[in-house]
Amino acid sequence: MKYAVCYRSLTGCTKKVAQAIYDDIKEKDKALLDIKDNPDITDADIVALGYYVDQAGPDDLACKFITRLKGKRVFVFCTLAYFADSTHAFEAIQKGIKLVQEAGGQVIGSFIANGALAPQIIAEFKRMAQSGNANHHAYTPEKGLRYELFKNHPTKAECALASERFQERVLLSDQVEALKAQH
Ligand SMILES: Cc1cc2nc3c(=O)[nH]c(=O)nc-3n(C[C@H](O)[C@H](O)[C@H](O)COP(=O)(O)O)c2cc1C
What we know:
The chain has a single domain (3-116, 152-182), classed as Rossmann fold. It starts with a strand and ends with a helix. α2 (60-66) links the parallel β3 (46-52) and β4 (73-80). Strands 2-1-3-4-5 form a 5-stranded parallel sheet, with helices on both faces. 46% of the residues lie in helices and 19% in strands. By secondary structure, the protein is of the alpha/beta class. The chain has helices spanning 13-24, 60-66, 87-103, 119-130, 141-149, 156-182; strands at 3-8, 30-34, 46-52, 73-80, 106-114. The site of flavin mononucleotide has 19 residues, from α1 and β4. Flavin mononucleotide is lined by residues 9-15, 52-56, 79-82, 115-117.
């Protein structure tokens, strides 16, 4: 297997981006793998690694999986319920990138998409607000508008852009490797 698209997803948002990246890979030598199944990626050269953001980074299972990425070229992507263009989102993708680098993987690019927040979590945040809980996650009407806005994310456009970025960075990485081989 040359390409492994590996994802950690609880409610399907990250899987949707992973599927789009996988579908657009032209080579036959590819696999779409759920990290919860602890997939074997020994033969993979290029790994697209996706995770849902859990407390500003990959969850424990994704972190454990990342330790196996030594020597791979890795494209990192994530989905999260807060704004994709926020400092929080940037920190959440950087956390994954840093872990890949610490594991000995080479990061060739990254992508952040918005994802819907699960209705059970919204309900929990509403319960917090109703019980007067001062937790910063407690529901407010303003937050409700954001949840509503993102309820159909990641969109087709986000998935397409994630895939386009992946393709471009793999191509660029191949070209750089070829250039290095000449010297
Ligand atoms: C346990 C847990 C922790 C989360 N922590 C964050 C967070 O720190 N920041 C954020 O923006 N979203 C957070 N989320 C929301 C998810 O990252 C977001 O809804 C994501 O798109 C879900 O992806 P999935 O459908 O692939 O599971 C959290 C969700 C869960 C279940």
